[in-house]
Amino acid sequence: MATAASASAFLFHAPPRGHHHHHKPKPASRPTTTLCSAAPSSTPSLADQLEPLSRTLLTDKPTPAADRAQRPTPEPTWVNPSRPRPTVLSLRRQRRRPAASHPSSAPLQPLLRDLRALPEDADLAPTLSAFFPLPGSPPTSSDALLLLNYLHPSWRKTLSLLAYLRALPADAGFAVDTILFNVALKSLRAARRWDEAERLALDMLDSGVPLDNITYSTLITAARRCRQFAKAVEWFERMYSPGSAVLPDEVTYSAVLDVYAQLRMKEEVLALFDRARGSGWKPDHVAFAVLAKMFGEAGDYDGIQFVFKEMREVGIKPNIFVYNALLEALGKTGKPGLARNLFEEMTAEGVEPNARTLTAVAKIYGRARWGRDALQLWDQMRERKIPADSILCNTLLSMCADVGLVAEAEQLFEEMKDPDLTDVPQPDKWSYTAMINIYGSIKDADRALQLFVEMLQSGIEANIMSYTIVIQCLGKANRIRDAVEVLEAGLERGLKPDDRLCGCLLSVVALSSGEETELVLGCLEKFNGNLVKLIRMLGDDQVGTDELKEQLRAVLNAAETEVRRPYCNCLIDICQNHGLPARRPRELFRLAQCYGLYSKLHIRKDDEWLLDLRSLSVGAAKTAFDDWMAALSERAAQGQTLPQSFNVFTGSSTHKFAQGLASAFAAHLEEAAAPFRPSESQVGSFVSSRDELVQWLQTSSSSSPVVG
Questions:
Q1: Compositional bias (Polar residues) at which positions (predicted)?
Q2: Which residues pair with 608 in a beta bridge?
Q3: Around Cβ 209, how many Cβ atoms within 10 Å?
Q4: Could you give the C-alpha distances from 400 to 223, 440, 530, in angstroms and in order?
C-alpha cells in the first residue's frame, strides 16, 4: 500500500530542477478499490460541494403546463439565406471611433471642451500650459496623440498644438516623434493645405525627424488632392534618394500611378507599374481603376485589354469602381458593343450598378445612337429601385436630345418634377437646359420660351447655356425681338456673356434683317465692341484687306479656341445674307485659312480629291466650294495633273434634328449647274469625274459665281 501511494504521489509532483530522466518510468498499476477506501481524501468532492446548492435551486417536480403557457414565446429570427451572417474576423475595416470617445481620453475631456471653445486661429499654448503645468505634469505621448486626433481636421489648431509640443523644455522628457508629425500632416491633407504640409515636412528634415512610409504617402496623396502633381512626383522621387531607406507601399504606388496618369505620363505609369510588380507589389482596385481611366482618356483599346489581362493574372475581381472606370474608358474608345458586354458581365457577377455606372452606359449608348437601349436600362433601374442622381437624369435628357426622342424626354422630365417620386431627383438648371435644347432643336420656340420662364419662376437661376439656347431658338424662328428681350432681361439679372453667346448672337444677326439687325448689334456692342466693329468694316467697301486682317486677328485672339471657326462661319453667313461686298466671303475664308481654322478641309489621295464641309455653316460651305473650284480652274488652265474623281462630303444628316447642310448644298450645286451628283454608296457625298469637272470649268464664264 505504501508503495502504491508513493507511486501516485510521484506522478503528480514535478521532478527536481536540473534532474533529467533518461528512462521513461513505467506507469503505476491501477490501485484497487481496497487501496482507495483505505486512504480517504480530506477534501470534499465537487458533487458534495454542489449538493446544498441543488437543494435550493433545483426541484424534482416538473414545471406545470400552465406556467409554461404563460411564458412569452420568443420571436423567430429571420435569416436572409442570400446574405449569411458575417464572420467575427471581417475583412472590412472597422469604423474608427472618434478620439474623444477613447477610454483614455476621459481625463482630457475638460481640456478638449476648452480647445473646442477657442476660435479657429487662437493660440492654444496658454490653455495647454494651464492644463499641463510644468515641471510637474507634462503631457505624455498618448495625450499628445489623442489631442491631435481630436483636433482633426482643424489644421490651424493642429499646428498650434504641434508648436506647443515642440517648444516644451528638454527636461520635460517629451520628444515629438514621426507619428505626431504624420497626424498633423493628415490634418493638413484633409484641409487641402499643401504649402503648410510641405513646409512641415521640410521642417522635419531640418530637425532630424525621420520620414517614414506614412509620411511620404501622406505627402504624395496630399499633393494629389491639391492637384500639385509635380510636387507629388518630386516627393516620390525623394523616397528613392540615396539617403532614404523608405520603400513605397500599396497606397503610395496607387497614388503615384494616379499622379502620373493625371500628368498624361503614360510611359512613366507603365514603367512604375512594371517596377512595382517586379518588387512583389500586388495592385489593388484603385491602381487598376487608374490604369483604366488613363487608357480610356487616351482612347487606347489595347491598354484596356492590358488591364483585363493583369487583373486576371493577379486574381482580382473588379469592383464597382473598376467597372465604372472600364466602362467610361470603353465609351471614350468608341466600343459600345464591348461596353454592353462588360455591363452584362458585371450584373452577372452580382456587382450592383450605381448611378455613375448607368451614367457611363447612357453616354455610350447615346454616342452609339442606341437611345432605346438606354431608356430600357433606365426602366430596369427603376424596377430595381436603384436611386438616380441628377447627373444620370440629365445625361439621359441630353441623350434624348441627341437622338430625337422628344416624347421619352418629356416623360422623364415629368417624373423628375413629380414630388411623389422620391427615387428621382428634382430637375435643376441642367435638366431645364436639356429640355430647352430639345425644343430648340425641333424649332418649337413657344415651348422652349415657356419652359425657360417656368425655370425662372421656380427659383432656378438659368445658366449661360440656357440663355444661349433660347436666344438661338428664337432667332431661328425669326423672333428677333423676343431674342433681344431675353438677352436684355438676362443682362439685368447679372448675366455675363461669354464667347459662345457672342457666336449665338452672330448667327442671329445672320438670320435678321433691317431694324432687327441693328437691335442685335446694339446688344452685342455692349460687351463685344470689336466684333461689331468688324461687322461694320465688312460692310464698308472702302476697307482694305490689310485693315480687315488686323481687326479679324484682334477678334480671334480675344476669343476662345473652340469658337474661332464658328465665328468665321457666322461672319461669312452675314456677308452672304446681308448683301455685303461680293469679295468679303472669299476674303474672310482665306484669312481664316491663313490662321489655320480651315486647315483640314482638303484631303488628297492618288485617285481622288475630297472636300470635307461637315464643320461649316451653309454660307461657309458654299464659299469653300467656290474657292476650291476657282483653284481647280487655275490648275486645269495650267495643265497640271488632276485625279480621276472628286468628292464633296457634307455629312449624312441622319440626325432627326439636323439642319440639312446636304440639302442646302445640293441646291447650290443645282444653281451653279456643277457636275456633282449624289453618291450611291455614301449618303451626304457628291461625286464628279475629272472629265466632267474639267469640261464644266472650261465652259464656265469668268463671271460665274463658282469660278469668279
A1: 32-46
A2: 645
A3: 18
A4: 40, 13, 38
